[in-house]
Amino acid sequence: MHFQDGSMFPENQEDLVITCAPYGPEWEPEDFPADIPITMEEQIQKAVDCYEAGATVLHLHVRELDGKGSKRLSKFNELIAGVREAVPEMIIQVGGSISFAPESDGEAAKWLSDDTRHMLAELTPVPDQVTIAINTNQMNIIEQMCDADIAGTSLADPELKYAYQEMTIPAGPEWVEEHIRRLSANGIQTHFQLSGVSQLETVERMMRRGAANVPLILTWVAIGGGFDAPNIYNLANFVRACPDGSVLTLESSMLNVLPINMMAIAMGLHVRCGIEDNIWTQRRDRKMSSVEQIQQLVRISEEFGRKVATAEEARRIYRLGEFYSSADETLARNGFAPNLHRLRA
């Protein structure tokens, strides 16, 4: 991405797309009973509340009635249908892990099997996006958390903490390319969740081979534990590597979320918030709901002079419905240099 003179002026920036992640599969309902929805009606209403607060993208996970993260695709179908009816304008982004929460006490936190995750391409109604990780990687969501972050929550339990500490993402090249192919065939946009520049380079290589003929819609996930740490050096390095045609959202963890999002707002990038990422105010004097976090970002963006995207504008920015017919078209639309054979032609 290039930052020319005037790039920080709000009139030269896209409207801000706010992604909310209000379902928080790593938390137990007792960790934040005022803001963790359990019944299907509550989960649908949470999407409505987030949309009305200013979020246009819903990062979706599902809970069972016992409060556990659901791994049943039928429950995903039910929630997607309910959200579609309640807020049809909202962009539905299904979390590619389905749910990484342990199935029962003492079990590991883990992503589901390759075959199960492929079934996300068969969801009905069809979501707008499914997130995808690139390259099998550690995902220790605890590493950047301090004792104050988890005090009084279920993550303070040593067994549960260990389960999340040891979590990995299975995302080998054969599975990734097949998953993108299946999503695209069903009109679902791939949303890349990347840990750093090396994974971005893998995506670029796939596009150069014609194995990912899709828009480069991505999130920089700065949570440590196998992902980049949330600091300005890593951020600048990642942003410099992104081509001008990409659409970049920033994601972080706990008290890093707000400052990282403020950087995104200032730089013309996009933001993500919600209790999946953080449950505290910056002073840790109380827990902060997903709706409050959205409202905070709306206020800050308005003070920067940057408008918050409507649902219609967010769909245009995300280039929903776009798929490409060749590697050459994909590279050109995403702002990459052409393949070398094109340069020699």
UniProtKB/TrEMBL annotation:
Domain of life of the native organism: Bacteria
Q: Does the UniProt entry include the keyword Membrane?
A: no
Q: Identify the cofactor(s).
A: Zn(2+)
Keywords, ordered alphabetically: Metal-binding, Transferase, Zinc
MF-aspect GO terms: 3-keto-5-aminohexanoate cleavage activity; metal ion binding
PANTHER family for this protein:
3-KETO-5-AMINOHEXANOATE CLEAVAGE ENZYME, 3-KETO-5-AMINOHEXANOATE CLEAVAGE ENZYME-RELATED
Protein name, UniProt field: Uncharacterized protein
The organism encoding this protein is Aequoribacter fuscus
